[in-house]
Amino acid sequence: MLVIDSVREMQQLGRSLRYGGHIIGFVPTMGYLHEGHLSLIRAAREECDKVVVSIFVNPAQFAPGEDFSNYPRDLERDKKLTADEGVDVVFAPTARGMYPLGFNTFVETEGELSSGLCASSRPGHFRGVTTVVSKLFNIVGADIAYLGQKDAQQAAVIKRMVKDLNMPVNIKVMPTVREGDGLAMSSRNSYLSPEERMQAVLVSRALLRAGELVSLGVRDSGSLVSEIEKILRTGKDIRIDYICVADPETLEPVSAVEKEALILVAAYVGRTRLIDNMVVTGDGRIGSLSGVGSERNKI
Q1: Which of 122, 219, 231, 241 is 20 to 30 Å from the Cα of 131, by its Cα?
Q2: Which of 118, 139, 174 is the last residue of a domain?
Q3: Do 245 and 147 share a structural domain?
Q4: Could you tell me the end-to-end alpha-carbon distance of the chain, in angstroms, rounded to an integer?
Q5: Residues 19 and 64 placed together within one structural domain of the fold
Q6: Are 277 and 150 in contact (CB under 8 A)?
Q7: Angle (CA) 232 236 238, round 5°
Q8: What is the CATH number of the domain that holds 167?
Q9: 10-59 pLDDT, tens per residue?
Q10: Is residue 295 in a domain?
Q11: Based on the domain organization, do 55 and 22 belong to the same domain?
């Protein structure tokens, strides 16, 4: 397994692989890998000739006062995990390499996708995401990029960017991987105290209850939101950021579950902000984002 920290070297390797006819599967991460990341790597390994994983804690997507300096990092551990999974290349650039002196170009989507939900709590976050992901796609030369459903808004924003800018990348959104008790896996789970960890599972339980209500015939978004809120408020250290029932592609709020809808939750457990979501359908099924809005722009 190659470990590369040079932007130029990674770009040259990516170009060489593509010229050689290899399909490059790409998993962008901020490191501190967990089973959710590894599931994306396995999907890429199964479908692609070469697998590249980026490990980069992107300063551009953290607002002032957020946890950039404290975000968990363990590159040596990550390198072992990726090697064990058969990754071909780990791209671990420096901040100066990605944002050299004089850097002054940003990529930004507009509209509901990048202005509501998490964007309301994290100003500038998605501009940082789209900027770094567009750079990574250009550097790595990815054919297929694998993203997790847990970060549903981020996935939707990236798909829109790829479509609008005619990027030759296929975006695949893979199901959320969960702990045994249902908590969505996240690097930030490491922040939780034992007592907070016990409360954190209420997020996934509340979503599961909403899914049960949909299967029982409840379609009204207000009723689903109220039930989720009631469950979350049983956690003494939980502070709700938002609960929303939205169109899974546009993320615009919907008043009822008709065809397909995405139920999204963001909440603070203590000082740790957690996000999770669930896809539900008008006929009462619980779905997945894995088949929603995959884009491939050919040039």
Answers
A1: 241
A2: 174
A3: no
A4: 30
A5: yes
A6: yes
A7: 50
A8: 3.40.50.620
A9: 999 999 999 999 999 999 999 999 999 999 999 999 999 999 999 999 99
A10: no
A11: yes
Token pair of 141 as six digits? 């030369």
Give the C-alpha distances (Å, rounded to integers) separating 9 from 14, 236, 290.
9, 50, 32
Domain span holding position 258: 187-282
Same domain, residue pair 120 and 236:
no
Q: Determine the longest span between alpha carbons in the chain, in angstroms.
A: 57
Residue 219, Cα to own-chain centre: how many angstroms? 27
In this structure, the dihedral spanned by the alpha carbons of residues 139, 86, 49 and 37, taken in order and rounded to 10 degrees, is -60
Q: Is the dihedral of CA 200, 247, 35, 109 positive or negative?
A: negative
Q: What burial letters (b/e) apply to 163-174, b meaning 16+ CB within 10 Å?
A: eeeebebbbbbb
Identify the helix (H) or strand (E) that includes residue 269: strand 260-269
CB-CB contact of 133 with 161 (8 Å): yes
What positions carry a catalytic annotation?
A: 37
| Claim to verify: residue 61 and residue 25 sit in the same structural domain | yes
- DSSP SS3 for 99: coil
Whether residue 64 is found in the same domain as residue 154: yes
Q: Which strands form 89-91's sheet, in the order they lie side by side?
A: 2-4, 89-91, 50-55, 24-29, 144-148, 170-174
Residue-wise pLDDT tens digits, 63-116: 888 999 999 999 999 999 999 999 999 999 999 999 999 999 999 998 878 788
Total number of domains in the chain: 2
